[in-house]
Amino acid sequence: MKLHQDLPAGQNTVTAIGDDYVAVNGERHANSFLLLPQRLEEGWGRAGFEALTEADFARIAELGCEVVLFGTGRRQRFPPPALLQPLMQARIGVEVMDTAAACRTYNILMAEGRNVAAALLLD
Known about the structure:
Elements: E1 14-18, E2 21-24, E3 27-29, E4 33-36, E5 39-42, H1 54-61, E6 67-71, H2 85-89, E7 93-97, H3 99-111, E8 116-120
């Protein structure tokens, strides 16, 4: 039996992950970005993990998603709880993991039709 991956048509799907890039629908991105099934916003978190502010997470809260997968780069790092206040106030779930794990989890949730966003930092 031949197995193949069934990818939703017209949806943003992570197709590859490397040490310094994430490919979405075959297009490489070398800078941090926000990923949703219907759009991709470059520039989010460009200054890196240590420079993140509450305003960065307020931007994610405006997207109206159910859950955010926060990919923190090559290793898992937890932001101070104060930064996550905009998401908590909007009752949006947050899962913190390394960027590769966030990409894999995003693909699964997106394929299930979940209202998910991935905030992906690249080191």
